[in-house]
Amino acid sequence: MKAALDIKAMANPAFGSLIVREIVKGHMEQDGKPLSIAVTFVSVPLVFSPKYLGDVFSNSNKSTGFVNWIGRHPEIIPGFPVRVKALKTYVISSLNFGLRHQIFSLNNASLASFKKGLKKEPRWPASDDRGELLRSANKLGFWINNVSSLSTIYASLGVKP
Q1: What is the mean pLDDT of residues 7-20?
Q2: Does any domain span residue 57?
Q3: Cα 124 from Cα 135, distance rounded (Å)
Q4: 87, 89, 111, 132: most buried, per Cβ within 10 A?
């Protein structure tokens, strides 16, 4: 990623809300089940994994699965709880922006996706870093739907709820 895009994307809750929306869309794709809001606090930092770890989402597809993916990329775990804490305010701002602008909805601590607040669907080519992040977010949401519990997700990442 280009450094300028990293700074703008990380500081922009509007873009963060699109990341959350893609996680929710991926999660709902299989059975329409909404996503627990608690998952966003670990999933957004995963999408924004530092590039020094490599492209952790490449060479994977929707059938890879969350636990299998974590097993393939143990380099994600060291320092991950620190990244979760560092991005907490950003995730909250992104959630607030998305809810305020009706990019997704909140009901019983679960998020559902809809594009009511979007005038048009955001699209970036595969070669664009923003498009890559959104595709990774969607894939991650899909994988998370197949994990049996929130505690399994948190434990797999070395994070305490």
Answers
A1: 82
A2: yes
A3: 10
A4: 111
